Amino acid sequence: MCNVIQRRGVDNGQRKSKNNEEQDEIENNSRRSFTFVYHLQTETSKIQVCKTFFLNTLCISAQTVRTVFNKMNSAGYIKEDQRGKACKNSMLDESVKQSVRNHIMLFETIDSHYCRQKTERKYLPPTLNVCKMYALYEEFCLDNNIERRATESMYRHIFTTEFNISFFLPKKDLCDVCHSYENSLTDEKLRMEQAYQQHIENKNLARSLKNADKEKAKANPSFCAAVFDYQQVLPAPKTEVGVTYYKLKLSTFKFTVFNLASKEAFCYMWHECVGKRGSSEIGSGLTLFIEHHVRKGIKEFSFFSDNCPGQNKNKFLFSLYIYLAQKYSIKICHTFLERGHTHNEGDSVHSVIEKVARNIPVYTPDQWFSLVRASKRKNSYVVVEMSQQSIFDLKKLTEVASINWDKKDTNDKVYWSEIKIVKTDPEEPNIIFYKNSYKDENEFKKICILKRGRKSIGVNINEIHL
């Protein structure tokens, strides 16, 4: 382009004027120091053209012309384009990249209660972000005498491209069925319509059952309706001090049972040296909850929870229901809320505790216990500190008491993932009643779990510990 653009100074010989006086006036008043003359090159000569013709022919803008002119030297040559000459991340010293990797790997990850147990993604505490991590990286470089350090953009690039790590954000479970339906095209929605409508009907029926039992519990002093769930793992220490992000934390667990009628929240808490986070711990907490309310005259229990097979919907918990029903002559019913719509009144307990703990440093599990007790002034939460002696191994109870969990009384196969409601009755020991629907007109089916030759579960659960 430099060959077809020429700079020409303004001189009197190129301007047409009527007289010398008018010409002198132009020289004195003009603020233009130069002008552009545009040419297009042919095989034999250059043809002068107007600016518009020149720009439209080459499909360029006036700014391109000005840029070329500004970068042109006195000899008429343009200096080499500097784009792409910057030092890229891929061209940086490998030791700089490795320092970033080493620093990121120092952070201890946490488990997400809302994700699949076998997920490969790891999670960092929600109090962290990339900006905070980079600030800690700068301190890390100073402490380790690392002279060459990465920029924040390079740190972020390595974090997002080389590590499968996210920052954990507590949130309510999202419904994959509703999400898929709402984001589908018209044809796909038509194919999904029947299943989606059934899903919505199940959601509404499950909520109606919960609300009905809630009102029944308020009117009937011998009936108890409750929801239960785990809260996310509570780490100790929990503080903003940078060095604690690199340390392995002691996990504290909290299992919450919320009485729908009295609005009492029972928080059963322990740390990972006492127990884990499975069905045995849930069963142990429910045992204490049931025993506490049996002493108050409760004869019938109705529980509501999510569908987690490893914690709630399994033979270990159902064996416990049969045992407790026989021991205390009580009825137990357990309704599993529709998948994706399991949020309930117990979530408010978790929300309050997370809000209180947001700006309070916690260093030990005992401090977590105290924080939960003090998190609500009115109707404070009941905190039960679980010991290893109070956590029972439900697997041993199942091994001793039962053998059949696969076939119902008609010898047909039982599909546990389809079960919506289970219940036990002390008048019919060793029987699990279940339904695959929330509708009242559907009859309960039966599973006899007892080993051949046994008449009842003759096991003392207090003798079975972890």
Number of strands: 15
Mean pLDDT: 81
Radius of gyration: 37 Å
Note the run of SSEs as H and E: EHEEHHHEHHEHHEEEEHEHEHHEHEEE
What's the assembly state of these chains? single chain
Q: Pick out the low-confidence regions.
A: 2-23, 113-118
Percent of residues in helices comes to 25-40%
| β-sheet strand percentage | 15-25%
The number of domains: 3
Topology diagram in text:
Blueprint: E1 5-8, H1 20-29, E2 35-41, E3 46-49, H2 51-58, H3 62-70, H4 94-104, E4 122-124, H5 130-143, H6 152-162, E5 165-167, H7 176-182, H8 186-219, E6 223-230, E7 234-236, E8 250-259, E9 265-271, H9 279-294, E10 300-305, H10 315-328, E11 331-336, H11 347-357, H12 365-374, E12 382-385, H13 394-401, E13 421-424, E14 431-435, E15 445-448
Helix pairs in contact: 4-5, 4-6, 7-8, 9-10, 10-13
Q: Overview of this structure, please?
A:
There is one protein chain. By secondary structure, the protein is an alpha/beta fold. It has three domains: 5-70, no CATH class; 93-167, no CATH class; 180-463, no CATH class. Helix content is 35%, strand content 17%. It has helices at 20-29, 51-58, 62-70, 94-104, 130-143, 152-162, 176-182, 186-219, 279-294, 315-328, 347-357, 365-374, 394-401, and strands spanning 5-8, 35-41, 46-49, 122-124, 165-167, 223-230, 234-236, 250-259, 265-271, 300-305, 331-336, 382-385, 421-424, 431-435, 445-448. Strands 6, 7, 8, 9, 10, 11, 12, 13, 14 and 15 form a ten-stranded mixed β-sheet that branches. A hairpin with a 5-residue loop joins β8 (250-259) and β9 (265-271). α4 (94-104) packs across α6, α7 (176-182) runs antiparallel to α8 (186-219) and α9 (279-294) packs parallel to α10 (315-328). It is elongated and about 110 Å long. Residues 305-402 form the DUF7869 domain. Residues 8-21 have a biased composition (Basic and acidic residues). InterPro entries: Cu2_ascorb_mOase_CS-2 (IPR014783), DUF7869 (IPR057191). Its cofactor is Cu(2+).
